[in-house]
Every structure is written in C-alpha cells, then in structure tokens.
Design goal:
Helices cover 34% and strands 16% of the residues.
Length: 200
C-alpha cells in the first residue's frame, strides 16, 4: 500500500535540468499531519512574504488566516468550493489571499496580482524548507469571503490556501482523491512556453 512517505518520494519532479531541490520536492498535498503550525511557524512564513519582490515595493498582498478548531477556520472552509471541501478539512491551517487593487494615488495597480503570486511563491519555498505542504486553491467563493470577512472596498480575495506539515493518512481521502494524490506530476515542456526572439 502506498504511504504518505512514498508519495513524497514519487512526487519529486522528474526535471530535464537540475534545479533547486526544494522546487523539485514541492507538490500540493491533500493530506497533512495533525501537527499544528505554531505562532513561530506562521511568523516565518509571513516573513518570507514580507521580503518578496513587488512593483514599487507596494506590497499589495493581504491575508486572512486561521487554525483548525477556530470559528474563522470554519468560515474560510465554508467559502471553499464543494470539491475543495472534500479534502481541505484535513489541513490544520487555512488562509485567504487577496490584494489591494489600486495604488495609494488611486490608480489601478496592474501588477498587484503578479506581486501576490510572487509573495506566495516565496512563502511556498519557505514552507517546503520547513516541511510544510502548501495547496493553493482557485476554488473559493470570493464574494462570500468578502461578505463574511468584511473585506474593504478596493481589495480582492483571489485564492485560498491549505497548509500543514507533510504526513497524515491516505485513507482520510476518498478513493478518487487517493488516485489523484498518487498521480504522476507533469509539467509542460519548456518549448511550449519559452520562446527566444519571438512568439511561436
């Protein structure tokens, strides 16, 4: 029977060129250890975000987070899509990620979503270094999140994130999700997205 530890080994990317090991190891788990994230763990993750690049150093990212067992955790969970609710309750930590849409001068910050992505990339690598799995989710009802968390005008919740230390029991997942968890990681070849000199 496949174990979580075997899954972690199987999910190491089969890269064509050598890359930083933490990038090879990263994947998006749907099962997690019961180990809680401590305040220090959370501070380290947000410190990685703090020092990520952003246009004009505007740092437009904003986050709402909660630990399992809290009312806020249940509220975030209720904002997730039905599919994500099938597994996200395994995570000891849930988070909503948003951004400030305009600059302080009132003009549209066209790069805000890009900067949010950069910050989450930083956090994901830091989490991997700490043995924490991160699963980013597009399946979130952002309108509901805005309402229940009183998100101010001018901000937008873009994604949700489930986090926890690697581990847990595969049997906590439904059969279809167990199959997805064990599926081989794939990525488009570079020739499909990187073009020298002109768009191909």
């Amino acid at each position: 029977m496949t174990t979580v530890e075997q899954l972690q080994l199987d999910n190491i990317a089969k890269n064509d060129y050598q890359i930083y090991p933490l990038l090879k190891q990263r994947y998006s788990p749907r099962i997690f250890s019961d180990q809680e994230l401590t305040e220090k763990d959370v501070n380290r993750l947000f410190e990685a975000i703090r020092w990520s690049a952003s246009s004009y150093n505007r740092q437009p990212w904003r986050f709402i987070y909660a630990h399992k067992g809290s009312e806020a955790y249940d509220t975030i969970f209720d904002c997730l899509s039905d599919f994500n609710q099938k597994w996200a309750g395994n995570a000891p930590f849930l988070m909503l990620a948003g951004y400030k849409k305009n600059t302080d001068e009132g003009t549209e910050n066209f790069h805000a979503l890009h900067d949010l992505g950069l910050s989450l990339g930083n956090m994901t690598v830091q989490a991997e270094y700490m043995g924490i799995g991160v699963h980013h989710m597009a399946g979130v009802n952002w309108q509901k999140a805005h309402d229940v968390f009183n998100v101010p005008e001018g901000y937008h919740i873009a994604t949700a994130i489930a986090m926890g230390f690697y581990g847990g029991e595969l049997n906590d997942l439904s059969e279809d999700l167990r199959e997805q968890e064990g599926a081989e990681r794939t990525g488009k070849p570079q020739t499909e997205f990187a073009f020298e000199g002109s768009w191909k």
